[in-house]
Specification:
Layout (H helix, E strand, L loop, with lengths): L2 H21 L2 H9 L3 H9 L7 H17 L3 H9 L8 H14 L4 H9 L6 H17 L3 H8 L10 H12 L8 H10 L3 H5 L3 H25 L4 H52 L1
Helix pairs in contact: 2-3, 2-4, 3-4, 4-5, 4-6, 5-6, 6-7, 6-8, 6-14, 7-8, 8-9, 8-10, 8-14, 10-14, 11-14, 13-14
Length: about 280
């Protein structure tokens, strides 16, 4: 992009901005968003002229909410969506996106249900979307009894949420998988160093831990046989071996805990991604 084109582009945007500011041209800001000019759109929106119209104020809060959401600034997004009046044509979409933002913020199901209750049920598809968002949060929080009840209310004929249903079904089936125990991992590693890591799903780390302990045990035994229990050499290697041994038990325990968190993180992000796609399919 040469310098002349850049200057022309900036002048063109400045001209459109001046016009948009005098009339609050919603289309201008929407085009900036569609062109992925999030920072520029937010800059202009933050410096928008004061408007008296409730519709224009709602539009500003809606556009800012969407922009903050796209930037993954979910706190700011949720604050702007809260300011939109229920008479705005953007109200339903804002509330539904707000639900996803609340989920990213790890808000409880009660807060999400409260936000969804404000959405109108006049549209059959919107009603189905509300149920699916509730079902999604039930899956995220592993509230399977609630999920089983909600999913029965879904009409399978609409394509806009087929991918979400497939994702929800995938994670619902995983409820039967046995949850690994950090305590069991610790016990395994206490019996055989590294075995708890293998149990946690980290086979390479488990083997590394085992083969680290083997020479330490041989050196410790050799020190005991040749130098005695009171020797400095034995005490030194006994201390080193003990530290490695205790560390092996503790890290095995935490590996299981970390593995659970990773699965929970994957579940939440995969489900919420599909929720976002569902809303885009319907509202765009």
């Amino acid at each position: 992009m040469n310098i002349r084109f850049k200057i022309f582009f900036l002048l063109f945007i400045a001209g459109l901005y001046s016009k948009a500011q005098s009339q609050f041209d919603y289309t201008f800001y929407k085009n900036l968003i569609n062109q992925k000019e999030q920072d520029l759109a937010l800059l202009y929106l933050n410096n928008a002229l004061s408007v008296n119209s409730l519709i224009q104020k709602d539009s500003i809060h809606y556009l800012k909410g969407i922009q903050f959401y796209e930037k993954k600034q979910f706190d700011s997004s949720e604050i702007n969506f809260q300011k939109i009046s229920n008479s705005s044509p953007t109200f339903n979409h804002a509330k539904l996106v707000q639900v996803i933002a609340l989920s990213f913020l790890n808000q409880p199901e009660l807060a999400i249900s409260k936000s969804l209750n404000a959405v109108s049920n006049s549209d059959t598809v919107i009603k189905q979307i509300k149920i699916l968002l509730l079902a999604s949060n039930a899956i995220i929080h592993k509230n399977y009894s609630s999920y089983d009840s909600l999913i029965l209310q879904i009409n399978d004929s609409l394509y806009i949420y087929n991918s979400l249903q497939t994702t929800l079904n995938k994670w619902s089936k995983k409820r039967t998988q046995k949850v690994k125990s950090g305590f069991v991992a610790g016990i395994f590693s206490a019996v055989v160093p590294g075995l708890g890591k293998v149990y946690a799903g980290k086979g390479f780390d488990g083997l590394s831990t085992f083969f680290t302990h083997v020479p330490l045990v041989f050196i410790l035994n050799e020190s005991l046989q040749n130098s005695g229990v009171n020797s400095g050499r034995f005490i030194t290697f006994a201390s080193i071996t003990s530290l490695f041994y205790i560390g092996n038990i503790l890290t095995s325990y935490h590996d299981v805990k970390l593995s659970r968190k990773e699965v929970d993180f994957e579940r939440k992000n995969e489900v919420l991604l599909q929720c976002n796609i569902m809303l885009r399919n319907y509202f765009n």
